[in-house]
Amino acid sequence: MSVVTRFAPSPTGYLHIGGARTALFNWLYARHHGGTFLLRIEDTDRARSTQAAVDAIIDGLSWLGLTWDGDAVSQFERRERHAEVARTMLAQGHAYHCYCSPEELEEMREQQKAAGLPMRYDGRWRDRDPSEAPAGVAPVIRLKAPREGETVLQDKVQGEVRVQNSQLDDMVLLRADGTPTYMLSVVVDDQDMGVTQVIRGDDHLTNTFRQLQIYQAMGWTPPDFAHIPLIHGPDGAKLSKRHGALGAEAYRDLGYLPEALRNYLLRLGWSHGDDEIISTEDAVSWFNLEGIGRSPSRMDYAKLDNLNGHYIRQADDGRLVDLIGPRLVTALGRDLSDADRDLLRRAMPGLKARAKTLVELANGAQFYITARPLPLDEKATQLLSDEARAQLATIAGRLKDASDWTAATLEGIVRTYAEETGLKLGKLAQPLRAALSGSAVSPPIFEVAEVLGQAETLARISDVAGGA
Ligand code: GLU
């Protein structure tokens, strides 16, 4: 049987980082088995579902490269089908009408509470004759759940989990206004979409027993289930806003590459020996449910940064220029010219070696295409003492006559000058860095000069040292 997985987010907010991991695992499982990965938007809660959230989820999944097969399914649009299944269960004797008023249910709850009992519907309409139905009351449809025995789940991650059927009450399938409940909708959709493997957060584990009872009542074969432990913050507490970014798109804005986040999310709860850096290709070929851990995983932002740095160093230079382009446009307040882009591409090997995020990369790249005279930060100003400026003027005179404009030749020229004057190379290189980059940190300075070219290098030195 061909594998079918699905990601079934409720569109009540952004694509949560935990949701993104669930989507990734489902996507990997389907791709690993050459199966199908479906997207179902669980938009039945009309008050809380928004189109903006649907868009954010689709945008987040697309950015992460988690492409689904076919069109996204709207759960809400399938409500008639869900209702039809409830009526079928009713007709087959697996469900019944319940005419309890809200007041009656409230009273039942109060009594159970007072007696220290768990709050459950007591099944009072389960075996009552429909002729006893009060006039003018629209009934709900409830599942006639088994009362004896137990419901057993063979979970691919949690192992065997059992619940006594006496612990589960007769849940509502169809409300009095004819709308299906979430529990029913999920089962009908998974069945109709041919889902073979449900991979989702373990906060849904208790729902699964109820869902299994619906499969059983309909005589349907349930899919396999794998409930993955939730993600916790670095302090071990349930992940919340105070732990930082929660939405996948926030990671894009913070300058993470999708492949880095994929690798990070994969390792957040799944392992393959000691491997930390796992390409998406390897992830597809290695992914299995056996590698999913049983305990909650903790966010580790330093690890994410390190992975991101790795993927930035691996990334194509032209792609990185495109990715930092919008940030530079904002920072500089102008569009980038072809010459800017060309220069940035040549500068990229030196820049990407030291950036952990695209934000750092853009910040580090900005000086290359900032118009002269370059603003100097505090440290650069300190480095450019009168003495240093005078030395730079002399160096500029020699650089003018450079036989060629490569980092090695330029370094040779400055080294010779250092030896002649008895100065340490660093004593000259730091002011040169200040003049060329406006700061005290940059890629290797002779590389910077090579990328800037002779005219721009001399002009930048002249801006601080005069002459040349
Ligand atoms: N809509 C549910 C959620 O967003 C997921 C349901 C499921 O995966 O079965 O948590």
TrEMBL record:
Domain Aminoacyl-tRNA synthetase class I anticodon-binding, which positions?
320-463
User: What Pfam families does UniProt report for this protein, alphabetically?
Assistant: Anticodon_2, tRNA-synt_1c
What is any one of the record's Gene Ontology cellular component terms? cytosol
The residues that cross the membrane are: none
Reaction catalysis annotation: tRNA(Glu) + L-glutamate + ATP = L-glutamyl-tRNA(Glu) + AMP + diphosphate
Q: Which residues form the Glutamyl/glutaminyl-tRNA synthetase class Ib catalytic domain?
A: 3-305
Gene3D superfamilies given in the database record: 1.10.10.350, HUPs
Task: Name the family.
Answer: Belongs to the class-I aminoacyl-tRNA synthetase family. Glutamate--tRNA ligase type 1 subfamily.
Q: What is the stated purpose of this protein?
A: Catalyzes the attachment of glutamate to tRNA(Glu) in a two-step reaction: glutamate is first activated by ATP to form Glu-AMP and then transferred to the acceptor end of tRNA(Glu).
Assembly and interactions?
Monomer.
This one is known as Glutamate--tRNA ligase
Q: What species is this protein from?
A: Nitrospirillum viridazoti CBAmc
Q: What is the lineage of its organism?
A: Bacteria, Pseudomonadati, Pseudomonadota, Alphaproteobacteria, Rhodospirillales
Gene name, Swiss-Prot/TrEMBL:
gltX
